[in-house]
Design brief:
3 strands
Length: about 70
Amino acid sequence: MKKLTFIFTLILSFANLFFKASECYHYHTIKESKLVRLAGKNYLQVTIKDPDNITYVSQQRYLIKNINHH
């Protein structure tokens, strides 16, 4: 029983370290939002970069409807 308790405690400790590191990583990532026009359509582009400001974590575009460009 002691061995099982020790293993369970060890697993929980590693999980706690992982979640703290993950939270710190997301806190320091850079998030940029901008409006872009592609193929005659307007989009909100959201880009997330690593703290080094070079590597892209993700980039998503959301179509903005009912806005005409003149």
